[in-house]
Design brief:
Blueprint lengths: L1 H14 L4 H5 L4 H10 L5 E2 L11 H12 L12 H10 L12 E4 L1 H13 L5 E6 L3 H10 L2 E6 L10 H7 L4 E7 L11 H13 L3 E5 L25 E6 L12 E4 L2 H12 L7 H13 L1 H23 L5 E2 L7 E5 L7 H12 L1 E2 L1 E2 L10 E5 L4 H19 L1
Parallel strand pairs: 1-11, 3-4, 3-5, 5-6, 6-7
Antiparallel strand pairs: 2-8, 7-8, 9-10, 10-13, 12-13
Helix pairs in contact: 4-11, 5-11, 6-7, 6-10, 12-14
Length: 400
Amino acid sequence: MNKLKLLISVHKRKKMKLSNLARNMGASAIRAMYNEALNMTDTISFTVGEPDFVTPRIIIDEAVEAWQRGLTHYTPNAGIQELRKAIAEYHKDDLNPNYQNEILVSCGAMESLQLALLTLVDPGDEVILVTPAWANYFGHIAMSGAVMKEVRVTEETEFIPTVDQMRKAITPKTKLVMINSPCNPTGAVIDSETSKGLAELFVEHDLFVISDEIYNRLVYDGLKYTSITSFPGMRERTVYISGFSKMFAMTGWRLGYSIARPDIIQAMTKLHENSASCLPEPTQLAGARALKSCQSDVDRMRDIYEKRRNLIFDLVNDMPGVKVTKPKGAFYLFVNIKDTGMKSSEFCMDLLRKTGVVTVPGTGFGDAGEGYIRLTYATSDENIIEGMGRMKQYLVNRMS
């Protein structure tokens, strides 16, 4: 009798399988390399795209004071009025949003991206994605049920998509285009002329756009950043997404926001209500304080990143067997390692085991990333000098 029960139990478990979505969702290559390095000593990591700075003290103090005042209750789904007003004021010269119905505060920009996709596309719709791309975009698109269509970019265009490439990718099933500028993983910044041409194309084909601009304060060489939302016809079709993680060194706070026309924000808010519901009030008050009082901190961190970019670029550019395009934004270097004859994952793992230098294979950002590795320079000068010294010696040994 016990054997019969066991057989029935096993039979039932065979039917209790996980969803196709969960079973097919890929693991992060960034986390894989990070976890591999945990078992080693004397490692130097260039993996996770996280500022190495601590959140400015004034932001922390704002949150602590709010907790001490007992502000520990539910908040409005769209975000507290004080933060939405601060976001509107921050964007008064570009998007000029209405704080009452055109802004949604979210649990990081990542949630904003997911909410935007679920709001704008149905299963089977085509979504154009410029690749190599941030790894989570692939998961977001899969979760929405949409069909991803890649537009692959290379060093030949400084990793910037051309209008012609985009035009060829559009079909009658295309519903939405995802843009990330400055870009993770390439550091590419779409120039104003290209943005204008892309905007005209998207208006012509009546497409929605998700514009992830979380790195837009981290641009270098005196470059004036131009958002694609600033061109005629784009404001009404674009969900602008940003957050506090990169600008204000607030990755662990999980605070982001979206700006879009009222009906889109209203729909996204309903989805947000049924997932995360709302954010803690102290976190939101800290975000408002950041926008009002910490622009000098952003400028200081940006200047340091620019110096680090110059340092790491010069060091990598002096290595045998690799090529690199100087990024104009974010804090990443996307290095071409094809001349080594190694696949991206093979190179990264071999480099780690022989030198302790932790990098990310380009394939973690889609198939278009094969033959590349990503380095983040959100780390100290000392780490950059030591880590790149080890990597150079590794390449000298391999290429000799």
